[in-house]
TrEMBL record:
GO molecular function term, any single one: glucose-6-phosphate dehydrogenase activity
Catalytic activity, reaction form: D-glucose 6-phosphate + NADP(+) = 6-phospho-D-glucono-1,5-lactone + NADPH + H(+)
Binding-site list for substrate: H186, K190, E224, D243, K348, K353
Coiled coil regions in record: none
NADP recorded as keyword: yes
Pathway participation: Carbohydrate degradation; pentose phosphate pathway; D-ribulose 5-phosphate from D-glucose 6-phosphate (oxidative stage): step 1/3
SUPFAM superfamilies linked to this entry: Glyceraldehyde-3-phosphate dehydrogenase-like, C-terminal domain, NAD(P)-binding Rossmann-fold domains
Chain positions recorded as NADP(+) binding sites: R50, D93, V94, K156
PROSITE patterns xref list: G6P_DEHYDROGENASE
Protein name: Glucose-6-phosphate 1-dehydrogenase
Pfam families: G6PD_C, G6PD_N
Protein origin, superkingdom: Bacteria
EC numbers for this chain: 1.1.1.49
Length: 506
């Protein structure tokens, strides 16, 4: 979180203000920034949508969202009243040019009232097919051209493939400068993900061993226990590779693998991340065959309840070829990482909801202990858990208490919950505050998005062109298809899983 320095007066234009994202994430995040005194004295939130609300009924909708989704529970009456004074609703259709004039006059009104010219943040919380029309219409009413004060926040997905991502970049860059475009990947706002930078570059201990001489392999695993829920229609045109790997997982991988930046400037950090993506080995037909696995969940039982298979979910094609699970083995062809495999996997309806990075170090060069003393031998492992718990664990061997020399792996644990008393902010709080302050470090640059698409395109094209004959190939509440175990087992490793604590069980 940034230092508590007040931003300039700010206007949030939330396109899709009545939608799920606004209700569940954006408004609760802005409310917390207000409670924690991060909002400037003068700010306005303008909700835009087609539904017939007035200011009062719109505020009622948002209050319901806060009461349901906010990390601090129900809003206190007086605090909500103070906050909600800043909220306005404007019924508008993104396709209607005249409505942008109304937006413009609303903004003019605030400008006249306020002491300083405000920052204007256009937040596009709408379906991606509306991004081009909104950007073009904003340009027509001159709500886009001031590089210093207007910004546009684009939600994921950024493109459906390399071609569409390039087209969207061309369109946006024709209207906005790169420093006005905030491509959001909310994963980058998570505390533990941000902590990767602190952990690696604020400690002298790890950087000297952070390379192929000491690290044997890296795993990044982002698993969900839910299915597609009510997003079946959307998900069936997307799949695990697009939904998780192209964005969140590759972003996390970049933080693990990047070279030390010279300073903490947004451009410097983003350059180092693009360097990683550019050094990643391209997938040819052999790599796709041997280094990738796709899966789709079948029906099954989750905690005693029968759940549907993917192809039976609402909105999903009964013969769907869309993957709900993906596992890939990547290599980064540079001096630091040559021949160190990076295994990534993601899937829906898996046994556990967890996001974990596991870095396994090479074995000791020579074992001096007798075999019987080290039956549960485990090479050193650094485990960074993003969820369910936010922690960093270093697994080391230790002597078990007793009269004989028996070795056991034990964890040295840094857990956010036990270490810090402050409540952890939601990722959207961090990212919205950064957008207000004009800090793009945690947002994706255009070339970064395109390079990530470029990397996964051969896999996407191959999977789409060849219908899987084994789908569905893993049952609900499992760890994915057996072939995913084989992908890593053939190199002598296994997927790391966190023991499920009682509190994590639902
Ligand atoms: P939603 O369907 O709940 O909301 C869409 C909003 O767009 C509504 O407010 C609707 O009124 C508005 N809208 C639709 N057509 C319009 C028009 N012609 N003119 C004006 N407004 C119009 O969708 P959502 O879940 O809020 O998602 C919005 C975007 O955010 C999508 O791109 C989605 O991929 C992305 N996203 C959502 C989440 C989430 O948690 N919901 C998470 C990450 C990304």
């Amino acid at each position: 979180m940034k230092a508590n320095i007040k931003s300039k007066p700010t206007i949030f234009m939330i396109f899709g203000g009545t939608g799920d994202l606004a209700e569940r994430k954006l408004i609760p995040a802005l409310y917390h920034l207000f409670l924690d005194s991060y909002m400037p004295k003068e700010f306005a939130i303008i909700g835009l949508g087609r539904t017939d609300y007035n200011d009062d009924s719109f505020k009622k909708l948002l209050l319901g969202g806060i009461n349901k989704f906010s990390r601090s529970g129900k809003a206190e009456k007086d605090k909500w009243e103070d906050f909600s004074k800043h909220i306005t609703y404007l019924k508008s259709d993104v396709n209607n040019e005249a409505d942008y004039k109304k937006m413009s006059s609303l903004i003019d009104g605030f400008e006249k009232e306020w002491s300083e010219t405000p920052i204007i943040i256009h937040y596009l919380a709408v379906a991606p097919n509306f991004f081009p029309i909104i950007a073009s219409n904003l340009a027509k009413v001159k709500l886009a051209d001031d590089c210093d004060r207007t910004r546009i926040v684009i939600e994921k997905p950024f493109g459906h493939d390399l071609q569409s991502a390039k087209e969207l970049n061309v369109l946006l860059k024709g209207i906005f400068a790169e420093n006005q475009i905030y491509r959001i990947d909310h994963y980058l706002g998570k505390e533990t993900v941000q902590n990767m930078l602190a952990f690696r570059f604020a400690n002298a201990l790890f950087e000297p061993i952070w390379n192929r001489n000491y690290i044997e392999h890296v795993q990044i695993s982002v698993t969900e226990d839910i299915g597609v829920e009510d997003r079946g229609g959307y998900y069936d045109g997307s799949g695990a590779l697009r939904d998780m790997v192209q964005n969140h997982i590759l972003q996390v991988l970049c933080l693990v693998a990047m070279e030390p930046p010279v300073n903490f400037d947004a451009e410097e950090i983003r350059n180092r991340k693009v360097d990683v993506l550019r050094a990643m080995r391209q997938f040819g037909p052999d790599e796709i065959r041997f280094n990738t696995v796709r899966g789709q969940y079948s029906e099954g039982w989750v905690k005693g309840e029968k759940v549907e298979g993917y192809r039976d979910e609402e909105g999903v094609d009964p013969e769907s070829n869309t993957e709900t699970f993906a596992a890939l083995k990547f290599f980064i062809d540079n001096w630091r990482w040559q021949n160190v495999p990076f295994y990534v996997r993601t899937g829906k309806r898996m046994h556990q909801k967890a996001s974990i990075i596991s870095i396994q170090f090479k074995d000791v060069p020579h074992l001096i202990f007798p075999n019987q003393s080290s039956e549960s031998w485990q090479q050193n492992r650094l485990i960074i858990s993003i969820q369910p718990e936010m922690s960093i664990r270093l697994q080391v061997q230790a002597k078990r208490p007793g009269l004989d020399m028996t070795l056991n792996p034990v964890d040295m644990v840094f857990n956010y919950d036990g270490t810090y008393e402050n409540e952890t902010p939601e990722a959207y709080e961090t990212l919205l505050l950064d957008a207000m302050k004009g800090d793009q470090t945690l947002f994706m640059r255009g070339d970064q998005v395109e390079t990530a698409w470029d990397l996964i395109m051969p896999v996407l094209e191959s999977w789409e062109s060849k219908k899987s004959i084994s789908f569905p190939n893993y049952s609900a509440d499992s760890w994915g298809p057996e072939t995913a175990e084989a992908l890593i087992a053939k190199d002598g490793f296994h997927w790391f899983t966190m023991p499920i604590k009682k509190a994590d069980k639902k």
